[in-house]
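yo, Amidinotransferase is done. seq:
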Amino acid sequence: MTTIQAPAAVVMIRPHNFQSNPETRFDNAFQTPDTATNVAQRALEEFDTATSCLRKAGVQVHVFDDFGERETPDSVFPNNWFSTHTGGHVALYPMHVENRRRERRTDVIDMLKQDYRVSDVVDYSGLEQDGLALEGTGAMVLDHIGRIAYVARSDRANPIILERFCTHFNYEPLCFDATDQQGRAIYHTNVLMGIGTEFALICLDMIKDLDRRRTILDRLSESGRTVIDLSAEQIASFAGNAIELTGNKRVLALSARALDALRPDQISIIERTAIPLPLNIPTIETAGGSVRCMIAGIHLTRRPKRTAA
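structure:
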């Protein structure tokens, strides 16, 4: 049941001091102001309910607490600063704004080394000093089966680092320009599209270059996947920000808002091979990310548990 595309274990960061990040508002059109009281407490409750739902579905969730000492308002979105890959490879990424650079933490990497087979850690984070960023599996949507990195061009997806990543990790970069209905560049590719084992979610209308749009559609279709074409309105409800995981059965983790935005025919395509798993996170979504952003998949081989002599 487990596939290369759908990891059975994930890392999630529990936010004790959640807030919408003031440093990212200038280019994240998905952020919305939340003036209600108890925002941090509501986000914490949403997070705990979400991790409970994932565990009940059979997904292994490694939770790390962030108590807010380092002023990391976006720490609930760890998929941007690291990724893991089959063969024991881990990548660390440079982040676009200064306060997101503080999200990287050694205890997460230490856990991966202890519990999983890690052969190397490739660290691109030093390129932040040159003003360059590649924000992990937010900037890149990775087809782990076809070895393609789909990337919407933005300040968070530097082409120089992308080329290095693709060379190191054996992916083919497929870049494109994407804009929302107001003509604003899409800040992270993973709000525009998500790739499962047997299907792909994407808003083709946001890719204005028709030749590039056709190329992307062809590449997704050539992989044997059914392409679920989303509308701009569905993207605004985070319908593209989903991740396929392996639990007791294969599931598609997405927000409750995202699932509500999908049409019955689109849901039926997903349900052929995965069970939709809606997580209710309206407060967390005000920060401009959704379920996919909250989950860093572990594509590593677990070490056998040591037994006492």
